[in-house]
Amino acid sequence: MSFDYNGPKIVVEPPGPKAREWIERDNQVLSTSLSRTAALVALRAHGPYVEDVDGNVFMDFGSGIAVSVMGHTEEHVVKAVQDQAAELIHANSCDYLTLPQVEYAERFLKMTPGDYPKRAFFSNSGAESIECGIKIAKYHTKRPGSIAFLGAFHGRFMGSLALTTNSPVSRRYYISSMMPGVAFSPYAYCYRCPFKQSYPGCNMECLQFLRENVLNQVIPPEDCAFMIIEPLLGAAGFIIPPKEFLQGVQDICRENGILLIVDEVQTAFGKTGYFLASEYFGLEPDILCVSKAIAAGLPMGITVTRSELLEWELNTHENTLGGNPVVVAGALAVLDLYEKQGFTEKAAQVGEWLQAGVRELQEKYDLIGDVRALGAMVGIELVESRETKEPATEKRNRLVEMTFKKGLLILGAGKSSVRLAPVHTMTEDEVKLGVKILDQALGEITG
After folding, report:
1. Alpha-carbon 79 to chain mean position
2. Rounded to whole angstroms, how far apart are CA atoms 66 and 39?
3. 17-60+343-446 domain in CATH 3.40.190.150?
4. Phi-psi sector, 251: left (phi>0), alpha (psi -120 to 50), beta
5. Per-residue model confidence as pLDDT tens for the chain (447 residues)
6. How many helices (H) and strands (E) does the chain have?
7. Which of 43, 85, 174, 368 is the most buried (most CB within 10 A)?
8. CATH 3.90.1150.10, the chain: domain bounds
């Protein structure tokens, strides 16, 4: 299929007539729990562009929640998937072996932090990769408890949901059914410090609270199997902590024999300007969880551990579809892009262009209270007043809707933030055009 996209193009105000018809059909048969950020009914996509059923073309600054960052329908990935589908689609991964699984594990393990032997377990999503990590940590430590951080998102299964606190809605009615024994500690959200401090003159009160209060008063170290943390909070609005916060968490884990699970489901694959965000923050996870961009949108997750942690009893943890040959073939093609075609460096360049444009918008609009950026991951937090920092939730929602109407896809996050994670192959002109649309929408909201 040939694509002829050279920018956003709105031919009928979205959602158009065909989209409205599909939305109505969707409303009759699919779960009402789905967020539906915008009334986009996608038909096809390529590079940084998504076309809807009415022929509208949108520039994608969200990449499907940081998934299609190598570009939609990237040609190497498409060919790898097609070739594998013609040879072998399925051989269940708990009973049999397949070539793509072994090759992927051999290559990916070498790209993860830590100079020690490692093993991998394949799954179908980020949440599944987290569930595997939970089971590994509890199996090997024989400890009942765990510690997560406020504002984090780790999934919506009963284990991962117990660790998730970005929204109370997903936890409602399940409190008694979720994994027990979870304690929480504040994340280093410096723009809204819960201790009313200012970085760097804060003595890292968040770390002190973890060490002195959570570990000493809530969950003793000898009862804590693991701590789990995102290198930056994704669903909360790309909240980026100081390096010493994450390194301090790692140190506390090491001091107390607590396993460190790093959730890189959203941050992996060059988005931060590093292949893995753990590299930037100086982390060596005992357990690393990755998904989203791993297979360019095909369902896949991977859990990587120190080798001894995935040496456990037969049948302790298995699945049927994890490491599907077609999916892993696509993932191998994605690895090629980052290993051999410099996509991490491309992401860093896109990030420079995007950050420069967004910083200019921050100077122009008081509505923008905070800009947080690492590589091509950029969070913009909207506030009613820079003095009070009152979240401008309604205006954030309008911004998402207005940019959609103008042909730009962005995603809301947290109470009043948007998160940008554009495709890594975008040109400078494309990035500037996306920023221009943001500028137009902000101007209309504040004007």
Report:
1. 26
2. 19
3. no
4. alpha
5. 678 899 999 999 999 999 999 999 999 999 999 989 999 999 999 999 999 999 999 999 999 999 999 999 999 999 999 999 999 999 988 899 999 999 999 999 999 999 999 999 999 999 999 999 999 999 999 999 999 999 999 999 999 999 999 988 989 999 889 999 999 999 999 999 999 999 999 999 999 999 999 998 999 999 999 999 999 999 999 999 999 999 999 999 999 999 999 999 999 999 999 999 999 999 999 999 999 999 999 999 999 999 999 999 999 999 999 999 999 999 999 999 999 999 999 999 999 999 999 999 999 999 999 999 999 999 999 999 999 999 999 999 999 999 999 999 999 999 999 999 999 999 999 999 999 999 999 999 998
6. 12, 15
7. 368
8. 17-60+343-446
Range 91-94 contact pairs with CB under 8 angstroms and sequence separation of 24 or more: 91/325, 92/320, 92/321, 93/122, 93/318, 93/319, 93/320, 93/321, 93/322, 93/323, 93/324, 94/318, 94/319, 94/320
Buried-exposed string 246-274: b where 16+ CB fall within 10 A, e elsewhere: bebbbebbeeeebbbbbbbbbbbbbbbbb
Is-cis flag, bond preceding 391, omega within 30?
A: no
| CATH numeric code, 78-340 | 3.40.640.10
For the whole model, what pTM was predicted?
0.97
Structure tokens at 191: 């723009």
CATH 3.40.640.10 segments of the chain? 78-340
